[in-house]
Structures are given as C-alpha cells and as structure tokens.
Amino acid sequence: MKVLKIKFNSILSAFVLISLLLGSCKKLDTYPITAYSENNFWKHPNHASAALNGAYSLLQLALNTEFVYYGEGRADLLKLHVENNMQSLSVINNTLNVNMSFANWGNFYRVVQQCNLILKYVPLMLEQNIYQSTSAASLKEYNRIMGQAHALRALCYFYMIRIWGEVPLITEATEVIEDINALKTPRTPMDDIYTQIITDLETAREFLADHASYDAKLTRSHITRGGVDALFTDLYLWKGDVDHALTYAGNLVNDSGEPTSSVYGYTALTGTTAAERYTSEYAQMFYNGYSKESIFEIAFNMDENSTSSLWGIYGGSGQAQFEASEIALSKLSAADPRRDVAFNTGSTKRYVQKFFEKDGSFDRTTMNDKNVIIYRLADICLLKAEALIKRGQGNDWQTALTLLNKIKQRAGVGQIGTEDFMIKTEEEAIEEVLEERARELSFEGKRWFDLVRNNKAIEVMQPLNGLSDPRNILWPINLGIIRQNPAIEQNEYYK
Length: 495
Prior knowledge:
Blueprint: E1 6-7, H1 23-28, H2 45-62, H3 66-71, E2 78-80, H4 86-93, H5 106-127, H6 136-164, E3 176-177, H7 190-207, H8 216-221, H9 225-239, H10 242-249, H11 274-277, H12 281-287, E4 294-298, E5 322-324, H13 326-331, H14 338-342, H15 364-367, E6 372-376, H16 377-391, H17 396-411, H18 418-422, H19 426-440, H20 447-453, H21 457-465, H22 479-484
Antiparallel strand pairs: 1-3, 2-5, 4-6
Helix pairs in contact: 2-5, 2-6, 5-6, 6-7, 7-9, 9-10, 9-16, 10-16, 16-17, 16-19, 17-19
C-alpha cells in the first residue's frame, strides 16, 4: 500500500513535494503539489492552482489501469490474454481476495485528502484578500478550484461506494496524517455518503459557471459544469432516482440526442474499410483524446512523466492482460463499424485496439499515455434513454427510442422501429439499451457498473465465472487497511 504522507503543522514546516506535471500546470505556471509547508504555501493564487493540479495527479494513480479492473474486468466483454498475472486471473474468474492491491482504496483517499485540504485553505486565502488583491481572472480561478475540488471528492466517493459499498466518509482536512486509516474512521452509512456526494456536486455546480474551461484540453481534462451534470446523471440513475437523472442528463443532451451546449458534439464514424474507420474522428477520440464528444477524461502525458499504462492491459504484444471475449465479438458483429475500432479483427488474438494507434505505429516508449475517458456524450445519451424507459410516462419510451437510435445512426447500424420497440417489456427495452452501451462503450470501464445498476450481474456472469451470491458483487477490502484500522469491518462475503 502506498502511504499518504501529508504533514501540515504550525511549528514544523513540511517538505514540499513536486510531483508529476500536467499540461494544465504549464499554462498556469504552477506545479502539482501534494504536500505543503505552512510557512510558504497558500500565499498566492498559483499555490491553490498547483494544489488542484496535484489532485488530478493523484486521480491518475487511482484510475489509470484501475478503471479497467473495476469497470470491465469482472464483466463479460473481456477474457484473460495470458495467465501470467494472478490479480488479473482473480478478477476474470471472480476469485477476489483480501490481499489484492486493487482491493485497496488508498489512492482514492489520497485524492479525497488533497481535496479536503484545498477546501479548507483556499477559502481562507479568499478571506485574506489574496484573490481580490490580484485580478478578476484570479477570482475566476478561485471558483474553478473550489468547484473542481468538490467535484473530484464526489467522483472518488461515487467510485468507492460502487466498488466497496459503505466506506469511511472523511471531509475534514487533517493537519498531520501518515495514512488515511490513522483516523480510525469506521464505514459510514450509505445514505450519509449519498448526501455528501450530492452536496458536493450541488456546490461544485454553483462554482463552475459553464461547460468550458480555459482551453480545449482543460475543458476535457478538468471537471466543468458538464462533468458535474454527467456525474449527477450517473449517480441518480445508480440510486434509482430517474427524475433527477433525467434533469441532469437534459442539461447535456436534448430529447433528440443532440448536445445542449456547443462545447460538445458527436464525433463522426466514417469509412468503408477498417483502415478508414480507424482514422475516423470517432476512433481518434480514443487514441488522441480531447475530442468534442468528451465531457471529462483523465489526461496523461509522456513528456510530463505520466502514463496510463493501458498498453500493458489492453494493447498488442504478448504482455496484454486482457483481450476481447467471444461475447464482445458477438455483440460487435462484422456488420458494426465500431468493431474495427474496438479490437484487432485480423488475428485470432483479439487485442483491444480502441486506445492505440493501429498497425504497428504505436511506440510504447513515447505513446503509452492514452487518456481515460470518464464521461462522453454518447454515454449520457444512453443513460438518459435508460432513465426514460424506467420512468415510462407519456412519450418517454418514444424519446428513449430516439436517443437509442441516435447512437445507432452514428455507428451506421440498423435502427429499431417504433412498433418493434413499443411491444417490448420494460426488461427487454432496458436490455436493448444495455446491449447498445456494450457496443458503444466497450472496454471503457462501464460494462460491470451497467450490469450491477440493472441487477443483471449474476444473470450475465454466473455462467461465465460462477457469480451467484449478491454479497459477492462488492469487492473485498484489502487486509492491510483492516489491520491499520480495526474500525473497518470486512464486507460480509469475504469474512
């Protein structure tokens, strides 16, 4: 377990750690900072900006390859490529254990702790007129920092409750802490965590005035109001509150599936051959990043020593942990152009190619920094369709069909007719949306959460890996965490 060392003491100055640079740091002339000295920090707006960049650096650690293990590894679109990694084998076979590093929530709490410090000290900077004494631009930066700190904390808690269930809710900044478990905080009831996530997101939305940041890259790689609305949509649908989910989804896509803000737009999937499709705007969304369809993605940059390491998880060569399963092949049939983008179709080994330059042009030493897309427009369009089917009032199903066909139309696959859709049961209609999400969002860390949200994890996975106990849906809590914090009780299935 990586130990979080954040020391902030009024007597002893702490060492200031300068960690990985992000692209946004250069624009703001700040470094991402993850530990602080009281004597020389929180004295200038750039210090707060650097602290925020530090939070994004820590988010890189929490969700680089982890988004695959948490969101795809336990679902049906992947299979093991080579049996040389016990953790990957355990995830695919659903033999999770308390010693797995992926069962450790420490990196999420590192982001939470960073946000807690920002939310404590940046308002004090405002009270001390540090922002007013500079410029209106700095005051705008204050709002941006506060909004994103609230949103990042909410994002981490949303991931954690979906992975582990109840977790310790820690919102106060701690002055001297060696590890988050030193607080000896027990797990918090789920309702209280939901309340905090919603409060954070509501506050974030107030601070973040619009969908755009300083430039195109920051608009995609830092959380804007659009990112908050996307997270709200996902959260409320997870909770089963379809009315609120529809409210926030409507802030991003209208009932025709079109974006409500000019900041966003669908990428085009064009070409009649596999090679042409792989150079399309749609494909470049994944291996170049920062597309107009992106709402929020975690950015990586080899020049700044940050890598998502996806090549070792998905890409070609014998080192990939996973490849596309036969089920993924059946869902993305030869008639679906997205198949040519999703995985290598010219080999018996179906390497996931979605994030990489194709045909040997990928250089692992210089290009292994593919961004991790957390939310994009098509994702929200399909979540809205799901929510409308579940609400089922008036013309909801017709609107849901319009949204579903919007994504099919972009892909160039056959659309569903109104009569055929309207005679379906609710379960059948939801299955249509889930199938489209599996095709459109394959390997992007969505499939497992889709199955769990719709109570389909056991139905789908029992024939594949024996998942049969609802208690087994949650991950175990790493044994090291429980040893450090006896107040933490292990999830029931793993006791």
